[in-house]
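Let's sit down with a protein and look at its sequence and fold side by side. Once you have written the record down, we can walk along the chain together.
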Amino acid sequence: MVRKGKRLLKKILKIIYIFHLFLAVLVFLVCLVYSNVNPKVGTLMLYREIKNRYKVQPVEYISINKIPRQLKILVVAAEDSKFYEHWGVDPEAISEALSRKDNLKKKYYGASTITQQLARTLFLLPDKNFFRKYMEIFIAVEMDILLQKEKILELYLNSIEWGKGIFGIKGAAEYYYGKGVSELSMEEMVELVTILPNPIKYGPGNFMKKKLFLRRYEFLASVAGLTNQEWNDDNQNGEGITNSYDSFYIEEEISSSNEQNQAGFLSE
């Protein structure tokens, strides 16, 4: 009986090992391709098209160098203020999310970094469970090892969901405002970053109805209102942002809200 138990355990461990090895190799190969070739599709796009029957617009890829510096700073400030410091995962954010789950008695699977959000957009399905969160973390760590931060941010801004069938900043700019990314005003950039947590339900025209989106907008507007001297070279890629929507949200809202928010600690 003991021998059978040991054999079963060995088989289970072997399966787990093979699964992780396969996943690691797959992510490595995909990252190798994506470091030189712009991705045209991700698992979330396929899911929206097949499962939700959305008419997914073709993604028009835009180089990170052609994306306004202010937009990059706004995204990092709102979604992942420690993007340039962590290794794909933010342990402090996860700890805060778990603490919030205990305090509010609600399942929180979030605290997703930009890299984690990219991992689930390209590789995973939007199922809400701990296994997906584990996969998300595993892939994000490997992506952070294999890709430069600027490449991860470029992939994110070109792949992230921005509406029903809308993916990427170029598609969002054209869909909502009928203009190119470089033509976006500061107000329009703030609005686009504001709706990132739930672009399926909210857009630039209706997010003000939701208290948390309004507070997120107010924070981003305060970031956008910095003087030209504060938009200096040290902040060119998002470094140097000492405040963030994460800390803003925690200080002002955590004690009184059970709402979802992708910019920091999610309850997905």
About this structure: The chain has one domain: 38-253. DSSP finds eleven helices and two strands in the chain.
